[in-house]
Design goal:
Layout lengths: L1 H17 L9 E10 L4 E3 L1 E6 L2 E7 L9 E12 L1 E6 L11 H7 L2 H17 L2 E6 L8 H10 L7 E4 L4 E2 L20 E2 L4 H12 L4 E4 L1 E3 L6 E3 L3 H13 L4 E5 L2 H10 L3 E4 L5 H9 L3 E3 L2 H10 L11 H16 L18 H9 L4 H15 L17 E5 L12 E6 L2 E2 L2
Parallel strand pairs: 1-5, 6-7, 7-8, 9-10, 11-14, 14-15, 15-16
Antiparallel strand pairs: 1-2, 1-3, 3-4, 5-17, 12-13, 17-18, 18-19
Helix pairs in contact: 5-6, 6-7, 8-10, 9-10
């Protein structure tokens, strides 16, 4: 019997050496770099202690290193909270490879989910440990399954918050221009009036973490962006959504759609192409966060033939620059959401680079991609900061992103939930 116990112990010890899921004790990590950005400020002379999946403490480098801690000291580098992507579509990929209609109408949900799993890993390896996915665009609730596959550690990817199908008004969304004698699958779920109550509840039942609404779309008489839902409809959506403990977020480009969305209780406004200072101040007053999605406009315009830095800026790019300038002037809180999927997953930093190009200070951009986005996702009590008791989502990049935001591309280390992935 004694030998049997000895054999069993040796077997457990052997397994612990080869399986990441079996451990005799939780590892303690001591991480340090030249600089530490805590979600609000940049510091020097600091180190972070991690045990299990939590941050134990932020300590001075001069303090004693705990006995048995695994020391990771990064030179010429900056330690940050895990970055958060505020507007992603993991089930889409760049339209210059395959156009949106083809992705939605011709690719199977199975193929799109397999592709999305690769996008998820690329996102994590780029230092983005959390993602808010704004809809599968025709792949139903496959994002709910993708999220579960990551949670169950079947695949590697960021922590996900998902919208599922998203909601549009009847007749506004695409794909469009096909023979109505056949059933054309839409990129989101149509609903109107009192039917919105049932659809919101159904989306929640299907697994949506929040409700995404297309508050306007290109369905005006001349193809311009016009509001799709009335203020009362948006209020009805929000009433049902908030009663479940979730939030409503709104795709809104036109000023009237933004105004209605804000007054109805939207937590974030996506795109805001026609935002002006007055609307920005209204958003600030109601504590609404703005996700500008600059990169989507920049890349789609290039796909259509614009040679950036050679050709003059076309109207939509000029408009985007003006709206972002107005947002900065109004003082509205700005998050970091690039509409990634329009451009490659893993290249999320492009949005941060354009925010800098359009006039936002680098410190505010770092906040946008960490503490602000955590607040937009209602995760401010566990993510977006390097703080005692928060989840151990940590990233190390080469150099100093306060001097050059593109240093975020130079990822040297990725930890999510206390697990090292890179």
């Amino acid at each position: 019997m004694k030998n049997l116990f000895k054999f069993a112990f040796c077997l457990i010890l052997y397994a612990s050496c080869f399986s990441p899921n079996i451990s005799l004790a939780q590892d303690v990590f001591y991480l340090t770099a030249d600089r530490l950005f805590d979600g609000e400020k940049m510091w020097t002379g600091k180190a972070v202690l991690v045990k299990g999946n939590k941050i134990m403490a932020i300590v001075e480098k001069s303090s004693p290193i705990p006995s048995g801690a695994k020391v990771l000291d990064f030179k010429n580098a900056t330690l940050l909270p895990g970055l958060i992507e505020g507007h992603a579509h993991l089930f889409l990929y760049p339209y210059n490879i395959t156009d949106w209609d083809t992705q939605v109408l011709k690719e199977t949900d199975a193929l799109r989910t397999i592709r999305a799993s690769v996008h998820a890993k690329n996102t994590l390896m780029a230092g983005f440990t959390s993602v808010r996915d704004l809809g599968t665009e025709g792949a139903g609730y496959a994002d709910v399954s993708l999220k579960k596959a990551i949670l169950d550690k079947i695949i590697e990817g960021p922590r996900m918050m998902v919208a599922g199908r998203a909601i549009v008004s009847t007749g506004s969304y695409g794909p469009k221009g096909y023979d109505n004698d056949q059933k054309i699958m839409l990129g989101a779920e149509p609903a109107d009036g009192n039917e919105l109550v049932r659809v919101v509840r159904d989306q929640i039942w299907q697994g949506a973490d929040f409700i995404k609404i297309y508050a306007d779309y290109r369905w005006g008489l001349m193809g311009e962006d016009r509001p799709t839902f009335t203020l009362d409809e948006l209020k009805l959506i929000n009433e049902v959504t908030t009663s479940s403990g979730r939030v409503m977020v709104c795709h809104a480009k036109s000023k009237e759609a933004i105004r209605r969305s804000v007054l109805a209780g939207a937590v974030t406004i996506e795109h805001g192409d026609f935002l002006d200072e007055e609307i920005g101040k209204l958003m600030k007053e109601h504590q609404v966060i703005f996700m500008p999605t600059i990169a989507a406009v920049d890349k789609i315009t290039q796909y259509r033939g614009w040679k950036k830095s050679i050709d003059p800026d076309p109207e939509n790019v000029v408009r985007k620059k003006l709206s972002f300038k107005a947002a900065l002037a109004s003082g509205v809180t700005i998050g970091m959401g690039g509409d990634v999927g329009v451009f490659p997953h893993g290249d999320n930093v492009m949005e941060m680079e354009l925010m800098a190009e359009y006039g936002m200070p680098n410190l505010d951009i770092l906040k946008a991609a960490t503490s602000v986005n955590a607040r937009a996702m209602n995760w401010q009590d566990k993510l977006g900061h390097i703080k005692e008791g928060f989840l151990a989502d940590l990233v190390v990049v080469k150099g100093n992103p306060l001097e050059n935001i593109s240093q975020i591309r130079e990822v040297k280390f990725v930890m999510k939930d206390g697990v090292i992935y890179k």
